[in-house]
Amino acid sequence: MATMKKIVALVMAFAMCAVCFAGCGAKTTNYAANNTEFFIGATGPLTGDASSYGISVQEGAQLAIDEINANGGLNGITFKFDIKDDKATAADAATGYDTLYEAGMQASIGSVTSGSCDSFASKADEDKVFAITPSASAANVIENRPTVFRVCFGDPDQGYLAAEEITANFENIGAIYDTSDAYSSGIYEAFAAKMEELGVEFNTQTFDAENKKDFSTQVEALKDCDVIFLPIYYTEAGTIAKTAAAKGCEALLFGCDGLDGIAGQLDESVTSEIRYITPFDANSTDEVASKFVTAYETAYGRTPDQFAADGYDAVMTIYEAMKKANVTDVTISPQALSDILVSTITADDFTFKGATGEMTWDESGACTKVPQIVVLNK
User: Fold this and answer.
1) Rounded (10°) CA dihedral 152, 182, 274, 110
2) Residue 78's domain is classified under what CATH number?
3) Domain limits for position 51
4) Cα distance between residue 238 and residue 199, in whole Å
5) What is the pLDDT of residues 62-97, one digit of tens each?
């Protein structure tokens, strides 16, 4: 009897090992071989405080997919897109990536926010999957990751540009940033470095994830400034704008692309002028941008923001690169497709003209394009 129990135990142990190896094999091979459409995946915050960004990217990306398919796809093969809700957390982005990879994702537009995208991009880099994030601007997202690119500006770029623009027009300068957020801290550090280089002093106030109620202390300290730099997201910026109004602070509020969406956070009390750096202006007369705005408004009944345009451009960049490379195999592995996309997008003769401007990329994964400074129409 004891011998029989040992045999049964051994058989069960071998069976468990076989299951484990099968699971590992599934992660390595995924299911792209069963694909009937080219599959682009992503994660983003579809719920929570940052959901405006994720939903905009989702809608912009899906609009691109719909347009591609309406025009016959690529070599007669259609595309599909799926985005998983990561709630702007690294853990959920990692889980979302695994789910998409197992389902046959062949290329991706990464994640929407920087913290999540660092997690997503780490996995994409490990698996050699191509990812081009619409909006994750932190430097570490693409750093030393050969298959990871971005459509948006990098944090340092925005920090440098903000310093140059603000110092050219104002003298009494303040800044408020989030010490607990990679996006905010990254832009602020670049801004501070440029301000030191320019020899301009300014006053800084901070907050973090545990201390962001009404910003009364921060605004009070800066209420006499001519301009307050806000390298933060639209939710906090909207609260700061209302607090500034309540305290009689008339400083111009100057932000980066994270302020796109702030209009929905304001009320009639806000009188301060608001400007922000963005690659996209919904009022542009540029033909490509204007066409995108019209299509988006028709599809969703509202004007697109920068994140919607970035999501659209990220998908279209993948499509145009695959088109240029004449990809015909719907079951192509993510790794083989990544090799094609990286070599195509970094080639000297590849330029993409999208809703957010004309773009080129180098092997660093960074995007080169011309920024705009938008004045918010309240």
Assistant:
1) 30
2) 3.40.50.2300
3) 32-153+284-369
4) 30
5) 999 999 999 999 999 999 999 999 999 999 999 999
